[in-house]
Specification:
The protein folds into two domains: about 50 residues, no CATH class; about 90 residues. Helices cover about 65% and strands about 5% of the residues. About 0% of the residues are buried.
Length: about 160
C-alpha cells in the first residue's frame, strides 16, 4: 500500500521542503531577484524565479546576518572565535550540570545514611553503629566535595578562557 505522500513519503517531502528553503536563502543573498511562491495540485508550496501560476505570490526573503563579520578579505578569525566561544559555553553548561548532578548524588547518599541511623538501638551497639555511620557520612562528604571542587576548578578555567 502506497502512502498518500508518494514514493518519498513524509520524510522525503520534509527534506525537499527544507532543501527548497535553504536554496532560497542562499540564492537570495546572491542576487536581488524576485522569488515566487505557488502551490502545486496537492497543495504543497513551490518556489521559482518566475511566476509559476496566475496566483503566484512574491516572497520577500530577508538577508539576516549571523552577527559574525568575516571582513572584506575573507578573514575568518571572527568565525573561528565565535565557534570557539560557542563550544566553551557548551562546555561550561555541561560542567555546571555535572556539578549539580554531583550535589544531588551527595544529598541522596547522605539521606540514605541518615535513614540508617534511625535503626540504631539506644545502647553501646547503637552508639558504635552511629559512630560508624558518622564516619561513613564524613567519607561521602569528602569524596563528593573533592569531585565537586575539581569540577568547579575546571569550570573556572573554562570561564577564564571565555573571558579572553
Amino acid at each position: 500500500m502506497r502512502s498518500a505522500y508518494g514514493v518519498l513519503g513524509l520524510f522525503g517531502e520534509l527534506c525537499v521542503a527544507r532543501l527548497a528553503v535553504l536554496l532560497l536563502v542562499l540564492w537570495s543573498g546572491m542576487a536581488g531577484a524576485q522569488i515566487y511562491k505557488c502551490e502545486d495540485d496537492r497543495g504543497r508550496p513551490q518556489f521559482s524565479d518566475r511566476p509559476c501560476a496566475t496566483d503566484a505570490q512574491t516572497v520577500t526573503v530577508e538577508n539576516t546576518s549571523s552577527g559574525i563579520n568575516m571582513g572584506s578579505q575573507g578573514n575568518y578569525s571572527g568565525v573561528y572565535k565565535a565557534t570557539a566561544d560557542r563550544e566553551l559555553r557548551r562546555k561550561i553548561k555541561a560542567k555546571k550540570a555535572e556539578i549539580d548532578s554531583l550535589e544531588a548524588a551527595k544529598a541522596r547518599a547522605l539521606a540514605i545514611i541518615r535513614g540508617e541511623q534511625r535503626y540504631s538501638a539506644n545502647n553501646l551497639a547503637g552508639a558504635t553503629r552511629d559512630e560508624s555511620l558518622a564516619t561513613e557520612m564524613d567519607a561521602v562528604v569528602k569524596d563528593y566535595n573533592a569531585r565537586i571542587e575539581l569540577r568547579a576548578r575546571e569550570l573556572s578555567e573554562l570561564r577564564g578562557l571565555l573571558s579572553r
